[in-house]
Hints:
Layout: H1 2-13, H2 16-26, E1 31-41, E2 44-55, E3 59-63, H3 70-77, E4 85-91, E5 133-136, H4 148-153, H5 158-167, H6 169-172, H7 188-199, E6 206-210, H8 218-233, E7 237-241, H9 245-248, E8 253-258, E9 261-264, H10 271-278
Parallel strand pairs: 3-7, 3-8, 5-6, 6-7
Antiparallel strand pairs: 1-2, 1-4, 8-9
Amino acid sequence: MRRGLMAGKRERQRFGCGEAARARRMGVFMEIEVTGIKKAYARKKVLMDITFSLGAGSCAAILGSNGSGKSTLLSILAGVRRADGGSFYVQGRPNETGRQADGRPARGQEETRPVPPRGTDLLRHPGQIPKVLGYVPQGDPLMEELTAWDNLRMWYDRETLKRELSEGALKLLGIDGFLKTPVRRMSGGMKKRLSIGCAVVSHPGILVLDEPSAALDPVCKENIREFLDGYRKEGGIVLMATHDAQDLELCNVCYVLKEGRLHPWRYDGDFHRLAEELCEKRGHSL
């Protein structure tokens, strides 16, 4: 079993060129470039010179101990929080052929969706971010007293919502199975899937998730991972913060955020070694 998981991991690590080629054939050319992001709270420097780039078809994990700044970084990229410095550029167009994240044509959608003008620093123009990026925070941004349908209607027009529930991303997430359920009565997995469904309303080329599988049962975790795997296979870029070893099997790129700096990390299946790396100081426990 373990050999099979590791073999699958090695296969995914080699996918880079193949997935990029697939994305090019489909007309998806999304690339992101993050340079020199900095953030401090009072005298505490949380992020220092965060720099990385990702291409179409990438799935990247950001690992770090609690309080290392993972959520801060993702919220900055999503435009929720301001950085003290740095830049965030996106090149290309998401799903330029008018396809959904699952590869099927998005009927009723324009062939090309509005994207930020070339050369736009999204950190300086955060209003442009929702055009290319969907964000799923750690806490579910849902209206507790409303049903799944009513929450989705805050994001989708009626016809688009019906279409997505019958054959689109919302169908893949299984949201059609609990449309009439109020959020306050939902399981954690149902809430997380609904949050993702709200985030992909514009078919963004980039999906950013903060601890997407935290506290979920195995079935819900697998459902979400299958969706994310299909999303990146069709040229989307997935960036997630996670502590879940199984999430790492989905990723072809891993980074460790430690003492405010981002370092590439090659995950080899040894979670104990990873845990030791994440400990910022001797004696610190995760």
